[in-house]
Amino acid sequence: MSRPIPWLAAATVLAFSLNAAHAQPAPAPAPQNVMQLDASGTVEVQQDVLVLTLGTVKDGKDAASVQSQLRQALDAALAEVRKSAEPRQMDVRTGNFSLSPRYGQNQQISGWQGRAELVLEGRDFPRITGAAARVGTLSIQRVAFDLSREQRESVEGEAQQQAIARFQAQAARLAGHFGFSGYTLREVAVHSNHGGPGPQPHMMAMEARSLGKADAPLPVEAGKASVTVTVSGSVQMR
Question: In this structure, are residues 227 and 43 in contact, taking their beta carbons and an 8 Å threshold?
Fold first, then answer.
């Protein structure tokens, strides 16, 4: 029985290795004539959510007594506004609740100050302002407006169509300016956000007085917000 010739086996391995190396795909060439751009579409819409914040500040020498006063004021307010609460029309939630020391001479604690907040939020403006007017233990601190999800989504599609049309028009125009007849889309991303005047401080940091039951509801009027959709990406000019 004959034995394999060593040099022949080595030559076979070398040939196989060279063929495998040649079989590997060549690296893809760097893309050319690719343009990055973005375009936006914006639609204004009426704000339909009122966010009304009630609050109170208490001071005292003892932290426990200040905390107790805050809890009593907050419990009384909650008992009153819950009578008018209704999902999406007027939702009720507690806000900031804090307690911090006050320092006097020699950096010694001379007393304590605490703050409690209650937030009324929803679409029914008269219901919210009426409930706030009946609260006798907290005062109105801030008034802000926002968009409901339904209101935002109702115009988001329109803003999206605007953004896409502007993206396409911009891509075609710029491709022509560079001497190309057209383009193909390589990649694209769509982002949406809404903004506006932001929190409307019609009445912020009112005097530390309680709203008596005889007080009339606070007059409020919402403004408009902007829903913006941005389309960004790259195109291959051809």
Answer: yes
